[in-house]
Design brief:
13% strand; alpha+beta; 61% helix; 3-stranded antiparallel sheet; 3 strands
Length: 110
């Protein structure tokens, strides 16, 4: 990942509804969710939700796939991993003991 890609992804997440959408999709991996269900769960009008999902998709952090009449959205976990690594790869000036609390926090959820 490069600076420009990271800025686009972070910019897409820098809005409350889109952050809520992304976190909801992460919780629903690997099955994903239909756009209408995302809108219902977050109490957002469907046309507004479509715009938010489009921004997240263009940023490359959400993928969509048509299943008959529904579009299923999924968090792109590979892209999330790349973004996270981009943000922390130079962490702690080469002192791994300083990063240990971060790793300990992440380990139980994964």
């Amino acid at each position: 990942m490069d600076n420009d890609s990271a800025i686009v992804a972070l910019g897409a997440l820098a809005q409350s509804t889109r952050l809520d959408v992304f976190r909801l999709l992460v919780r629903h991996e690997p099955d994903g969710m239909a756009a209408g269900e995302i809108a219902r769960q977050l109490d957002v009008p469907q046309n507004t939700m479509s715009a938010h999902l489009g921004i997240l998709a263009r940023a490359g952090i959400v993928r969509s796939e048509r299943h008959s009449r529904s579009i299923i959205y999924r968090a792109d976990l590979d892209r999330l991993r790349a973004l996270t690594l981009f943000l922390v790869k130079d962490c702690c000036a080469g002192s791994p003991e300083l990063c240990a609390p971060l790793l300990a926090e992440l380990t139980p959820c994964c």
